Amino acid sequence: MKVSEIEIHSEPAARKQTRQARRRTLGFGFFALLLAAAAALGWFVYKGITERVSAENKLVRETRQSDVLEVAVVRPKLTGATESIDLPGNTQPLIDAPVYARTSGYVKAWYTDIGTRVKAGQVLAEIDAPEVDHQLQQARADLETARTNLKLAQITAGRYANLLKTGAVARQDADNMISDMKSKQTMVESAADNVKRLQDLQSFEKVVAPFDGVITARNTDVGQLIDAGSASAGKELFRISAVNKLRVFIDVPERYDQAARTGSPATLTLNEFPGRVFHGTVVRNSNAIDPASRTLLVEVDVDNPTGELLPGAYVFVHLHAAGEAAAAMTIPVNTVLFRSEGLRAAVVRNGRAMLLPIQVGRDFGDSLEVVSGLRPSDKLIVNPPDSLISGTAVRVADADDSDPAAR
């Protein structure tokens, strides 16, 4: 056989092999596509089933959680090592006195008005009393007459004493002269006292300040008749107050009477001096509890050298208490339930709400002082529902319970 014949016979066999190879390649590709489609279908089916199961589980969890009350909590606030007791009071001058006239007459002049600072002995006003002046002149004349009579009596008594030694006069006459001399001596002393009395009365024509202070009232004017007699009540001419030191009377509750011991420090604040603190001292107390108000009357003195503090001003006195009272806590009022059996604080313990009886001290308006019934670690439920009962399961909301204002 020739070579050309062999090539003709071998060419169809090669084509056949090529076609078979192509069929196998197409079969493998179709099978791969089929596997990919099956895998994609399986993944979509798996994903749908997983999402459905997850949604069902979430629904179950939410259903279970909806059965548990969700609450916000806040912790009690400790008062610290010392506690400030804030009490209202009114400032009063250390000395406050009306000034009256001691002699009758007409007001000649006045030299001080309200708000004037005066020194002890400073003349406030003058009274024209001519009757007193004439009486003083008459008394002085009477004193001179008494002294003249005394001098004559002393000379006479001396002469009779010398004559008695010689027996020229009777002893009775000498004794009479000596007795007359002593009587004249007493009359001189009486006249001198009368002059001194009228001099003092004349000095009262000048009305003077009894102590250092400020004039807070003037109730007289020039030409006004002043009657200092005992038949009618005297009229107040001036009122003077010593303001270099002020006193404040406060009523301290019986529970805090130990904070008001004599010598204890105190601080004062006023609305007209924001940010400023004035220091005072507890100087005395009544040493008795008022049975009506259950309070102790306490006096606090505060130095006022510049006169910034005015008498009658409304102030807050801050006393500092330590010990048992300092262990108290304060809680917001919106954590308390008012029940028929008494006040109850709602707290969370071991995942359940507990209604605890508490003893309240002072009421600060938006917060209450609790002296017993709570622990510093307790979590108080904010705005507990009125229907809440002890033992109810609760869940604490995810929030910062250190800031009550955030509630």
Can you describe this structure?
With 407 residues, this protein is α+β, with helices and mostly antiparallel strands. The protein folds into 5 domains: 1-67; 71-78 and 327-406, conserved putative lor/sdh protein from methanococcus maripaludis s2 fold, CATH 2.40.420.20; 101-126 and 208-236, Beta Barrel (OB fold (Dihydrolipoamide Acetyltransferase, E2P)); 130-204, Helix hairpin bin (Helix Hairpins), CATH 1.10.287.470; 243-326, Beta Barrel (Elongation Factor Tu (Ef-tu), domain 3), CATH 2.40.30.170. The chain is built from 3 helices and 23 strands. The strands form 5 sheets. It has a 6-stranded antiparallel beta barrel. Strands 2, 17, 18, 19 and 22 form a 5-stranded antiparallel β-sheet that branches. The chain has a 4-stranded antiparallel β-sheet with strand order 3-16-21-20, with no helix packed on it. α2 (130-166) packs antiparallel against α3.
List the helices and strands and how they pair.
Layout: H1 3-66, E1 69-71, E2 73-74, E3 77-78, E4 82-99, E5 105-110, E6 117-118, E7 123-128, H2 130-166, H3 171-203, E8 206-208, E9 213-218, E10 225-226, E11 238-253, E12 265-269, E13 278-290, E14 295-303, E15 314-322, E16 329-332, E17 336-339, E18 342-349, E19 352-357, E20 359-363, E21 367-372, E22 379-381, E23 394-396
Parallel strand pairs: 1-23
Antiparallel strand pairs: 2-22, 3-16, 4-11, 4-15, 5-7, 5-10, 6-9, 7-8, 9-11, 11-14, 12-13, 12-15, 13-14, 16-21, 17-18, 18-19, 18-22, 20-21
Helix pairs in contact: 2-3
